Fold each of these.
Amino acid sequence: MRGKMKKYILGIESTAHTFGVAVVDDGKILSNIKDSYATEKGGIIPIEAAEHHEKIKEEIYREALKQANITEKEIKAIAFSQGPGLPPCLKVGKEFTKELARKLKVPVVPVNHCVSHLEIGKITGARDPVLLYVSGANTQIIAYSSGKYRVFGETLDRGIGNFIDSFARYAGIGFPGGPKIQELSEKGKKYIELPYSIKGMDVAFSGILTNLKQKLESKKYKLEDLSFSLQETVFAMLIEASERALAHTGKNELLLGGGVACNSRLQEMAKIMCKERGARYFCPPNELLVDNAGMIGFLGEIMFEKGIKEKPNKVDILPRQRTDDVEVKWK
Ligand code: ATP
Ligand code: FE2
């Protein structure tokens, strides 16, 4: 008997800045190609981001197949980011998924973007972690509990990445601000007192941003010291909230996710906290921390193997899908 042709899962990400396509095989990411829309000012104009995605989607797709060394005929299902995200951006991913799925006659697997940030942590060995998800738009502490992924804590105003980027923009150091603030903070020596804003497992950043802007305006402080103090303050808040979530859920694994988790000082603080309470610390490589299609394909494959799939004309985007709205049928 001739062996069946080996087949693969395609992952597609398009919730915000990033359009990405990945090929996944049995938990291994064979290719993970992406391109991100960026403006000088750093803010996102959803329609422009969608135009960016529209323009590069075909090229990214071809490159993902090429790097994985597969042909279209070897795709068995397409997983796509269904939400949460910006509607115009999500639509590009959805339409691309539908067209391709119809053409290739394969099913579609709708994936929640936030949950995929958590599930991809399994690649690092985490089994049942508390996820500290810190990206541009999102700041959440998520864990699996009683059949659902639940948000134990979150930002009450803006996302941490957005907060850091806003301060960086105000200081005139460009976008994205995260890596630049980190660089400056390493030269900072003096800790300047800033508001510390945490309630239970929730955090807030807007007040701190206003305070930082005033301090910068006053010209009494060095940007290096402000950057250092910014990081020490807001990361301490996040670590405190994460520790509380670990204690509350009784879990003993902490996983980092989202672009801000690329920050080495945040990683260091997370490691120290975990060590002190005897928890295990996990952090995927940078390319899997930021928005990417590999994590969508990775979770899509797990779902597909459990029989979760849809016909292409049945699926739609869910721009406001909440983490705890997701029906976890694959566990
Ligand atoms: P979403 O919030 O929808 O998941 P996004 O595109 O805003 O998507 P990511 O790609 O996960 O988010 O992350 C981008 C953010 O990560 C930016 O705000 C950027 O400043 C921040 N970032 C990147 N590197 C670092 C770093 N070393 N330190 C701090 N922040 C960083
Ligand atoms: Fe994300």
Amino acid sequence: MTDLIDSLASGNDLSDDEWRFLLEGDYDRQRLFDRADKVRRQHYGTDVYIRGLIEISSFCKNDCLYCGIRRSNANAERYRLSKEEIYACCAQGYELGFRTFVLQGGEDAYHTTEWVEEVVSAIKEKYPDCAVTLSLGERPQEDYEIWYKAGADRYLLRHETASRPHYEKLHPPQQSYKYRMLCLQNLKQIGYQTGAGFMVGSPFQSTDDLIADMRFLREFQPHMVGIGPFIPHHDTPFAAYPQGTLEQTLTMVALTRLTLPHALIPATTALGTIHPQGREMGLQAGANVVMPNLSPVSVRGQYSLYDNKICAGEEAAEGIALLKSCVTAAGYQVVVSRGDSVRMR
Ligand code: SAH
């Protein structure tokens, strides 16, 4: 087992059987987490980067079977932030020490190329020392290029699963695995710090699917990787499926750190949702980013991707003091910094 962890940490790929053992074998996971933490400290010390997450719209034209804001969910409450509301979130976030703003949303047709371009330009003009990350789903390459020229630095687009048959079980036929992967290639080629990622324990996911995720990460070399447990949402077709486990999610975080030593890996909100110390444990298993919620308090409950999504306390941007003390207690420190990938330096 130690040999396998060493081998992975030295940059080797593993055989299917070796991967299978690390993913589902009976061994001391703490040793894996400790090794991942050691690798993270070699490249990023004990720094934890914070991102202010602004959820700009809960309208979505897509129909992902797992997601609470899917088009078919007639019970979802929909909202969309105005430009002014977004700028107000940034102003508040800047005061709190955020130097990255993440604009995330459903795929909302209201967000035209020009609308997003203007928002990105305005934020970059007002806060030249900040990074802007977009997470607005699949768009034509041209949009990504225009937003990059407007100053967007990073883009998060989780691949969700690297197995095409599995992707097709999580999405309706109109949504294509091939196109999502093409979008990721385009983003990286344009020059974005690019984020991929996947859910752990999503319906129908097999160990082989998770091995495919690890191999995809190794090949694609994203700058960022978002990994969280699947959590059911009561108004989706997957309402009755079990959530992903803490241990399996931490295992995937740790294996990702060993596979991509330089990656920016968030301890995700979903991880914090399934366990009160989930995010701290994520940090101790190789993660080095947290993304507190900077959306206006009035709309926070409506960006409901899954049930019981946390958005108060240390998860909320205004709870930053609490977050800092939790991070410190876990052995790290929150830093005021853009927190770019060391690969960009
Ligand atoms: N529309 C954007 C943002 C999606 S929301 C895009 O397409 O990228 C951000 C992430 O939330 C998704 O990529 C997905 O991995 C995650 N998510 C959605 N529903 C979830 C659920 N039920 N449980 C856990 N994570 C979920």
